[in-house]
Amino acid sequence: MSEHVQEQQPGLEQEQQPTIWEAGRHPVNIGQLVMGLAFLGLVAVWALFTTDAVDGGDVRWLLPVPFVLAGATGLVASAASGAARRDRWS
User: Are 71 and 37 a contacting pair, CB within 8 Å?
Assistant: First the structure.
């Protein structure tokens, strides 16, 4: 136990909102989200190619798709995170 006890002065009440961890959520690392989605997308493209679902010519336009989708997801997550942070500070 801590020996340091903070005493609150009478008349000073603090409004305490639960932290993000206490609320049962954790902050999302957007970089990890984007790279994870890009990796999963590349695995999906590889699986399509190895099962002969697509041929070599289709891979040219299929390879950039995971990066575009992961980047778009990162932009949306960044905008949502920024809006939530902005609302908290206003």
Answer: no
Q: In which residue are the tokens 């006890």 written?
A: 5
Residue 66 lies in a domain: yes
Does the residue 5 lie in any domain? no
Q: How far is CA 11 from CA 6, 8, 14, 17, 44, in A?
A: 15, 9, 10, 19, 61
pLDDT tens for the chain, residues 1 to 90: 556 655 555 554 556 776 666 666 677 789 999 999 999 999 999 999 999 999 888 889 999 999 999 999 999 998 887 766 666 555
In a domain, 2, yes or no: no
